[in-house]
Fold this sequence. Notes:
Layout: E1 10-17, E2 26-33, E3 39-45, H1 69-97
Amino acid sequence: MRCIACAAEMQLVGSEPDQSMLLSGQELRTFQCLACGRSEQTLVFTRNIEEIAGERMLLPSRSRSGPDIRDTLLKAAQRIWQHAGTALRNAVTALRSRPNL
């Protein structure tokens, strides 16, 4: 680790487990610059990360008793467009029936 003040290499002078978090696997490391005397503390994750399992995730099978979600969404979209079309036709009819100002 390099010193921010003088860019010299810092030396590790202390290391202790971090007790501030509920999770274990972290260390509080103290570095000191031999050139300018500046010290710095960093929190380091020290736990080994295990390899992710190569197994594929199995998703629950789709229930055949209920309607497919795509069908439900398609029917809802059709109803919305029908309602929008009816509202538009009613608005056009109302505008046409107004007397010219």
